[in-house]
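WARN  no MSA supplied for this record, continuing single-sequence
INFO  ligand: aspartic acid
INFO  echoing inputs
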Amino acid sequence: MLKRVASALAGLACLVAASLPAAAEYPERPITMIVPFAAGGPTDIIARIVGEHMAKTLGQAVVVENVAGAGGTTGSTRAAQAKPDGYTIMMGHMGTHGAAPALYPNLKYDPAKDFAPVGLAAGTPILIVAKKDFPAKDLKEFVAYVKANEGKVNEAHAGVGSVSFTTCTLLQSIMGTKTGRVAYRGTGPVLNDLVAGQVDFACDQIVNLVSQIQSGNIKVYAIATEQRSDTLPNVPTSKEAGLPEFQVSAWNAIFAPKGTAPEIVAKLNAALVKALDDENTRKRLLELGSVIPDTAGRSSDALHKLVESEVARWTPVLKAAGVTAN
Ligand code: ASP
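INFO  complex generated
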């Protein structure tokens, strides 16, 4: 009996010894960060800024891999199913980890259960933007014009389940409109087509838009937050501009697959927190209008709670709007 216990204990010790050094020595090679949208959009921009500093702390490259499609759910599924060894993580957002379950009845991952949340990277206010010769000078005229020309006007978004799709679904339901809606692989390409005048309007995360707004290449009607943004102080809030019901904000956050060792998640979280405290990283994020999470909002636990509350928040809104992907 004693012998058997001793050998079981020895086996256990071997297992522990095999997993501990892996976590202690992590990372020993580059880390892939999946961005579930096209390059050049908000998720990609935030992943690259934050990832660059995390790489310095971790002593290994953080390589962004763009896995676009199905409103971010293709890349998120890939990340959820990746080996939970800390070498594949992802930059998700309010769409992939908040809205998607309501839109995809057959979603292959549960945002709250199939990931080990690492931490929140940035808050991103939402703006209503349009091509520069869109015939409306302010938000009231925009709403009137879209209502009057529902059949002619096209909205662009990053696919069913994305932040742009979700927030413009809310906007269209407030306006009582059903315009044409054109899907892209991310809002990087949406912005290109908006600048080129190929599509009419979009709802998007601020980090994508600041420079094109400042250079007058697109029109902006409102920011959907309580307060104006310091980065774009001339842009009225939706409340000031006459559409107070349109209050919505998004966020981007890092996730590892479920089953990733807690020591590894802690290392990733510490590297993220260090990036968010770095002066240059902060400056870059702030210049793009993002909101840097406060200390309490940076923990894995805070992100887990955020995901649960976002899924609960978006499910009734999207069900009421009557949209699903499959
Ligand atoms: N901002 C996009 C969205 O609408 C995605 C992207 O980052 O390109 O979800």
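The chain has a mean pLDDT of 94.
INFO  checksum written, moving to next record
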